[in-house]
Amino acid sequence: MKKHLFVKKVTILLMTVLVVGALFFSVPTAAYYGSADISPAYTNLTTKSWVSAEAGTGDAKLAIDQDATTYWDAGSVSEKSWLMVDLGGTYAGMKKVEVVFPSFDAEYKYMLEASSDGEEWFTISDQSQASVIGGEDVLIQESPDIRYLKATLLDVSDGAVAGIAEIRTNNYLLKENLTIGADLSWDTAFLNRTYTTNSNTDVPSSDGRMIGTMHELGMTSARFRVWNEPRSENTGTPVTHVNGSMNPEDTLNKSLYVNDIGMKVGIDFHYSDSWADPSKQIKPKSWKDLSFDELVEAVYDFTYEVTEAHIDAGVTPYYIQVGNEIIDGTLWGNEKVPTGNEPRYAIEDPSYTAQPGGELLWEYWGSDDPAEQAAYDAAWDRFTRLIDAGLRATKDASPESKTKIHVIVGKTSLQKTQEFWRQLTSRLKEDYNNDFDIMSISYYPEWHGPMENLSRNLHAFATEFPEYELAVSETSHRASGGPSDTGYPNTIQGQADFLIDVMRGANDTINNSVSTVLVWEPAVWQSMFTELGDNWFQANDSTRIFRNAFSNYIPKTNDYLITDLYKTPVLAETIEVLNLDTNTIESTTVAWDELPEQAYSTLGSFTVNGKTEYGDVTAHVAVVMSADVLEKMTKEKVDAGEVSGPLVPQLTNSLKQAKHHFDRGSTENAMKFIDKYLRHLERKANERNITEEAKADLINHANMLLDAWE
């Protein structure tokens, strides 16, 4: 991690853990912090800047502008009445598409198709025979990954707008698409603690170890850092114990435990005796006097030996990380004057930087000075040679393990990180015929900017380097402790919301590029546990995200229907749900809010909220005027004696003819008979056959029908 406030915490931590080796860190005691509201995470991808739309005619952007009052207008149904959305890359979690038409009270016939490449298309909704009213939610069962969606209008009812108001493409967080884990390196330092997922301090969850508890909570991956010969950053005193030291033996012990409970193991080589991050990358004491050639050999040997020890013990790491946050290089040497951020033992001993190393000279990036440019290139040559040694050792010792490079992206330094990836990948390939598998970054809003930065950065890497797997190797947020300037409060809910949004940002990266999100040090740094006393630590309620943020069921959340004026709408008793385990469509009952009569006593539209066991649902009800409404009202007036005599057959016959012509598709002729209906009402000879109140009421509603038909 980047230094700043973290350095103070690390110094205190190391003085306590690495020297004393007893109780290592203090977490606020007293009451449990609180609870969090957690729902399955998904994103409407049409909100993303990289999503675009085109159409055969009209302004396609209006169908993805997040404003249902605007719409793509095709003008009419023709060979040009199609709209295509390009998501910018493929998505495996595309399980629901919401289509909203401009006219809620109209019928639409259309086809909705999907494609991964724009060449091979498959149908996800065929409404060419049965019309859709107002809109629909389309649940997608088994399908290839989706990049393109194409809607083609086939027919619309008279008077309706031929277009689409909104297409919402919902990308869900699915367990098979994203691995969630953490750096759990401190686990063996806290063997005297009991970690639990419940508040009953007599019964621990799992076996009481932090790793076991995180696994129980839903994490499936653990990363462990490796220090060469761990020592105190303050005094330089070597650590004599094993547990919690992060030396190779301690790392192997944790890896064996993780492997036994079925979690993935990741190894993070710091190539230092203490912390390595962008502010310091200090050589191990035993390597400080080596020539550069000897340093390269030492990197290979150490990487190989630690990895081989894992293989020999029966643990095949899922990945090996060569260096930690190495945006500014690794194993710094005499390339330039030390920064002053190094551990005290290195600051006080200039021999640590007496020999060449692998620091990158970013101050010379883009320089027009030939000497500075030469120094920039030479630094890259040295750095790449060191990285090549670590990668070769990993592949030689464990060919099945993936290889990872881990950097950061500062708030305004995306271009710097892109330059890093370009330089490293091209030099590894061209100079060493070598490469790696995973590009990874840290993300802390304090140092790397708001959440949109994470999404932007991941998208940039996935777009420029599509052949690489991506990962967020470190991220975290506080659950308590004063005000926050990150956009997320320092609460249990804030911690949950932040981590869900990180997972969401990873999941929303094109082509399913991001494979892993790792929480940084949930026991120590911005902890996800609350101390209950007597060395018992309860997992914060925010940790439920590791299960509850993923979807098992995806319900339709919108239902569209029409009701006649004054007629109680018939709301659906059930709504369809996609069971992701079986890829089948099921149904679930809906409990609707109470429906007031005044809601459907006015022309227009309204919504009704409902609840299911899988989430909320909204009914969109269009209230329309129809000949049936006028016919019913006329009959009520007749039955009440408010209309009588010859006026009765005059009105009923006019309505009968109007309905006949309307049903045959001749709205113009239907309107002529409503005009006749009105003339009968207004004839002076009929004044004695109708009350004034009934006359005004029927005239008003007959005109409403004419307006609707127009």
Automatic annotation (TrEMBL):
It is an enzyme of class 3 (hydrolase). The keyword Nucleus does not apply. PANTHER family: ARABINOGALACTAN ENDO-BETA-1,4-GALACTANASE A. InterPro entries: FA58C, FIMAH_dom, Galactose-bd-like_sf, GH, Glyco_hydro_53. Residues 28-170 form the F5/8 type C domain. Belongs to the glycosyl hydrolase 53 family. This is Arabinogalactan endo-beta-1,4-galactanase. It holds the Pfam family FIMAH. It catalyses: The enzyme specifically hydrolyzes (1->4)-beta-D-galactosidic linkages in type I arabinogalactans. Keywords: Glycosidase, Hydrolase, Membrane, Transmembrane, Transmembrane helix.
